[in-house]
Amino acid sequence: MLVVVSLLAMTVLAAPTAAHPQTLSYGAFRLVKASPAVTAAPEIILPDGYTRVAGEKFQVPSRAEYYSFVEGPRATSVRVAVRWPGVDVAAVVSGKSRLPLTREPDGTVSFTIPVTGANTNALQNTLQVWTFPSPSTASGVHWRIEHNDRDRVAGVWNSVAWPAAATKTFIHLLVACDAILRDSGLAGEAQRRGHFFSLMGFETNNTLHSDNPPHWHLAYYPGLTYSAPRAHVPHFWMDSTGKTFYNGMDVQGEGRSRYYAGDPAPIEDAEGNLVVTLTIRADGGLDIEPPNGPLYSITAPGGAFTEKVHVHRDGRPWRWFGGTDDVKSGLMTLRAGSLAPPAHKEATVYWYDELTGVIESVTRY
Asked: From which domain of life does this come (predicted)?
């Protein structure tokens, strides 16, 4: 519920609570416009002792939003006021929460945010609009899907063409890889060992993480955290049609190796034992080969990776995979079906908060 109070009351509330002046901390928020448009920057009013973090990475406009980082004494609740003539602020997000708003008759909007981050990087979750179909590393597969909205583009993405094909294709690829990891036993073995595979796409609105060019990940972490030693992290770059053409693979502590179509990229555990081999295909797909087989080949009918992908297992048709993501409504559907008898189709439908990515409901068919 929106409450209207006087500016005097708002001023009284501006003092931070539980402040510790000796500690410089950080906060962040996103102002979401009711209608995407190119607009002037808002006026952001902070209490004494608090300032906006300087720099274009920290005060960021887009057609849909404006996000801002602030700094000052550590406090669990700092009141922020925003004046934005001609712009209707539909929502304000901090972390994974939509904040309660107070609206003044003159259009001023106020809200409170925590200023508790140790640094700005610690607050990237305010910017990240992700959904986690598999949220636990202990399951053997940890994966997320980034919800890319062209009205939210920021940073480097303002200077390049919108990667329409890649934003569709990486979802198909992640759905296929999840099924392959489970069918092959790779996920189960990783779970047994306390390791995990990580599946990710890319984001287009985070100036603290310039996730460009468009790429996706099928990585291996020999441990239960992202700091696991000798993690193998492929970066599969995609071209303008969604085809994969390059793998820049980082191995923790060893730098980056480069692989192109036809180059086998070995994924190893911390002791150097082979876990799986990944090879980019000449058609823009990927071969995934466990040490003892079978060989899984991801390709696309007619080379159209933006529509769906097909997977062959040891050269025989196995299954198809695809997904759609309506980022404006917060509706994502992941689909799969058989390529050989018996006929089978399935779908998983996720409703999520379109501003945070937090899952609201999951239905499987």
From this structure: Bacteria
